[in-house]
Amino acid sequence: MSDPLLKHFYGGFIRLHVLYHAEKEPIFGLEMIEELGRHGYRIGPGTLYPILHQLERDGYLKRTDKVVAGHRRKTYRATAAGRRLLKDAKAKLRELFTEVIEDRPPQR
Q: Least packed by Cβ within 10 Å: which of 5, 28, 95, 99?
């Protein structure tokens, strides 16, 4: 992907995906890389893990360490702040979808 603005948009979409899934259930990095791949995003650990760490630092995700098959696995859940942010982002996304995709002005 060579267009910097498109890359910037995709970064926001990826963060929304992460928050959405972390609200539903605990997530971990490889699982999210695979999930995002099903949606056409080709990202690796060097892209995803900094996003997870940033969302954790900013208070939107909470990390828990678990041992799975003898290996430490970091899992993430959305915090109350993450759930509020996702709720607000969904409202903005709904409004944008209505205006841009459905070509209808937003209702006030």
A: 5
